[in-house]
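Now for a concrete sample entry.
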Amino acid sequence: MQKKLTVTIDEEVYEGLREVIGPRKISRFIEDLVRPHVTKKDIYAAYKEMAADEVRESEALEWAEATFGDVNDEER
């Protein structure tokens, strides 16, 4: 269920939101920014969700393998 909320912001910020995010997408943008700070998510479910993202996992593996090579090349 959704709830309606009235928020007061500076006019310049509002115009920036409309220009960058789009007039019909501001609520979703703000919700996505705020959600992680105000809701508690089951950490195991969150990890499972992240692991299911094949593109993210592929990029993470590529990054990890690239940094592993950096560590091996360091002088001791």
Summary: Residues 41-76 form one domain. The radius of gyration is 20 Å. The chain has a mean pLDDT of 87. The longest helix spans residues 54-72.
